[in-house]
Amino acid sequence: MDRKDWPLFEIFIRPKNGLSHKHVGSLHAADARMALDNARDVYTRRGEGVSIWAVPASSIAASDPSEKASLFDPADDKVYRHPTFYDIPADVKNI
Amino acid sequence: MYTQGLDAKTEQSAQPSPRLVTEQEAALQGRFQERVDAEEKIEPRDWMPEGYRRTLVRQISQHAHSEIVGMLPEGNWITRAPTLRRKVALLAKVQDEGGHGLYLYSAAETLGVSRDELVGQLLSGKAKYSSIFNYPTPTWADIGAIGWLVDGAAIMNQVPLCRCSYGPYARAMVRICREESFHQRQGYELMLALAQGTAEQKRMAQDALNRWWWPSLMMFGPSDDQSAHSAQNMAWKIKRFSNDELRQRFVDATVPQAEFLGLTIPDPELRFNAETGHYEFGAIDWTEFNEILKGNGPCNRERIEARRKAWDDGAWVREAAVAHAAKRKQRAMKKAG
């Protein structure tokens, strides 16, 4: 493997316990351990996180934006999935 | 640190592609423009016009190169900073610039170019980077002037880029702007210390202002009537304000700061117009700017040589990282049996 083949890692950071890891960017590294070290130096220079995930970009399966309509449209007409679909008299409280 | 309108009208890339636009493509372009007009962000795998992609690759990579080359003039003073406080600040700032370069290269890579391709363009001298980094830093006051003026101009330019239509670029800019604000403040504080110091220190501060003022104004790029891509980039919402608009804002913000320092802006034509509420300033010497872009600035050669040397001297580190990764993998496999 030469330098050109350093894989791309996507970096996720948990800002503090109780919150989810969030995507912050990416970097190249020879392996996952070095990706974590580099992510520490690049993405947490000011106390931005308490935990880092480095995920090989090649391991991420992504939906195709051109299929956005067929993927997500089915949810658009299902208003009955939302609480506002149901009529409750104003006199009824705590619901 | 900074992005700049580097594209003069004569540049080849400004010529439209001769290819005919098909009906289907026209429809895609129309939909794309509607999304941009509605302030929707464009993400890497979305359809985009080829010109949009090309413009972004050029702008983001030039911006990344500027961050990396921008480490050099300041790096010059790390070992000679007058106090430990100044030294840690300068180290942190230069380290930030390296990080900013990385965020931006990553954003450019989402558009389908490789990191090595981009670095190769910088090292071969093909790629452009901000004109400002081709000036030397002979005195300590230059470090103050860079933080105050160069980073100040950069912030003025970069804040609107946080709303750029291309998602990865906009997100990188949010991070960069957040980190950049300490850069300008440490520079101004440094200038303040010199301006309030001995007569010799004050002279040094004035000398630095004299040398950095005009190059800082040039950082905003050619005047609007000379700028190659302005209208299209505005329509694509890559750019939000024109070069001249941003330059005016910078002058308006900076002149009072210079007055507070007790320093004089080196422009005899500078005056406040009470009617418009803006400062009017003298004509910019664009010959100097164009010469620097052509590679004839005071430090162009030195900067690229320094980058090439760093790349060559770092070869063994890149090789060692690969060897180490291979060994670690082998060991893990053996252990798993």
From TrEMBL, chain A:
Enzyme category, top tier: oxidoreductase
Gene3D superfamilies the record matches: Phenylacetic acid degradation B
EC number: 1.14.13.149
Taxonomy, superkingdom: Bacteria
Keywords, sorted A to Z: Oxidoreductase, Plasmid
InterPro entries membership: PaaB (IPR009359), PaaB_sf (IPR038693)
An annotated Gene Ontology molecular function: phenylacetyl-CoA 1,2-epoxidase activity
The protein's name: 1,2-phenylacetyl-CoA epoxidase subunit B
Pfam families documented for this protein: PaaB
UniProtKB/TrEMBL annotation, chain B:
Annotated Gene3D superfamilies: 1.20.1260.10
Keywords: Oxidoreductase, Plasmid
Keyword DNA-binding: no
Region (Disordered): 1-23
GO MF terms, alphabetically ordered: phenylacetyl-CoA 1,2-epoxidase activity
Pfam families membership: PaaA_PaaC
SUPFAM superfamilies in UniProt: Ferritin-like
Enzyme Commission code(s) on record: 1.14.13.149
GO cellular component, one term: cytosol
Any one of the GO BP annotations: phenylacetate catabolic process
Name of the top EC class for this enzyme: oxidoreductase
Record-linked NCBIfam families: PA_CoA_Oxy1
The name this protein goes by in its record: 1,2-phenylacetyl-CoA epoxidase subunit A
Organism (species): Azospirillum oryzae
Upper taxonomic lineage: Bacteria, Pseudomonadati, Pseudomonadota, Alphaproteobacteria, Rhodospirillales
Protein's gene: paaA
